[in-house]
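Section: Multi-chain targets

For targets with more than one molecule, the full set of components is provided together so that the structure can be written out for the assembly as a whole rather than chain by chain. Components appear in the order listed by the source. The example entry contains two components.
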Amino acid sequence: MTLISLDLQSRSGKTLAKLDVDSEDTVGQLKKKFHAVNKKYYPARQRMTLPAKEGQKSGEVLKDSAKLSEYGLSSGSVVLFKDLGTQIDYSTVFFFEYFGPLVIYPLFFFLPQIFYPGQKALPLDQRPLVQKIAVAYWMFHYAKRIFETYFVHTFGHATMPIKNLFKNCSYYYGFAAFVAYFVNHPAYTAPDETLSLVCFALAMVCQFSNFRCHTILSNLRAPGETAYKIPSGFLFNYITCANYTAEIWGWILFTIGTHTIAAGLFTAAGAFQMAEWARGKHKRLQKLFDGKDGRQKYPKRWVMFPPLL
Amino acid sequence: MTKHREHNNAHPAIRGYLVLYNAVQGIGWSLCLAACLSAAHKGPDRQSIFLAGSVYARWLQFAAFAEILHAGTGIVPSSPVTNFLQWLGRANALFMFAVGIPELQHLSCAPLMLIVWSLGEMIRYPWYGLQLLHACPAWLTWLRYNAFLLLYPTGVVSEMLLLWKGLPYLRSRDLYSIHMPNKYNFAWDYAIFIQIMLVLYPYLWWGNFSSLLRQRSKKLKAPVAAGGQRAAAAGKED
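Its structure, encoded as tokens over all components, is:
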């Protein structure tokens, strides 16, 4: 319980504020204090770091939940501030990302006169079965994602920079239109109906598997816990990012079920991005759970997609 | 995300390979320029000039695909995606348009494009090679960071003109396109694709050009400062 005065500086060395805090306060409380001094920088926008030590490119990032004393901060210590830019809630971004595809895809199914001008489209009841199943599956998938956003997922970070909203929405909305255009095309050639039915049935199994994976992940931490845990149970016993496995297989089955290259490209793009994330998570867990000093050792597992990754 | 090994410290066999690669490209593009100039000397027929240079350009552009692999494996600190897109842009202009639509070879932009590419690459590849050998002369660095100021804008304008002039042929000959219906339900209208690319070209090109400008101001800072000091000293002596 010691009162200390911290020197908050910009990265160019200019003092932005001198903040009086208790050494037992958390970084989160420090950020609230700075927000009180400068209304523009709400806590989610603040990144605080220690000055870089010898050989470091940049200093250690201060975690919101940690106490100031944990970083060895005392009166006169310098803390560096970086503005992360306008922030937006993860859940808000997810909602807009997923709402787009949910609405865009069915537009192509229901309004061919707009998207395929001059081409004769079959009336809805005469459309190939695959097209009907595909639109239902697609809408179910994105409705499920929105549901999970509000009722299942627990987010490690509360916010992200707002420019990610535009980048992510471009990706999702663009691919939704791209895939929808070809599956719902008047000149669409349906594959064998039995093959399609089997594929979509298996794809639904993947949807439920993916949902189960998400509930396992959200139950890993009790509310308020921030420590990393080793996921276990169901497919997680064999694969670090089992949720991605189910997701990718779902889209592979969608592609085979619809015999559409555009869907294949969408699957590949998603898989590529998920592989990057999965590799990062796998490495992080292996590094954290190294088996030393009483810590568990991270078991040998596939990263995301046996037998390839 | 990609792991970049500092390529100047990489295994000597890798460095040797890269030096060789840069040498081959540097010599190759010089031959391309020589062929163009020789053909130009014989007569002003634009198509002959283009064809003379393209004999080399086709192979050099084909081989340049290797640079994507260099970036992907990390032996060169560069982004494989950026390299791929740049390679694709050039390959499109050269193979799909200049070679694929012979009528375009009568336009000035076809041989001009090859000449501009040659001039740029004759400087760039030797620069990379000599940098790897820590034997790069200052005048080459100067050339590398100044020649592009003229060559890049000329190059991008020639490419865009070529694409623009090629559009009618793409449509009338239904080139490089896939139509529906087909078994995999895919369509690709190359003319529409090129029209979109023409809109994006200036934006993509500017990203490239401005990063070179930034590199230029960093790399050419020292000599300019030295020159300034000498000038100031000279002024004082007067």
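The CA atoms of residues 152 and 209 of chain B lie 8 Å apart.
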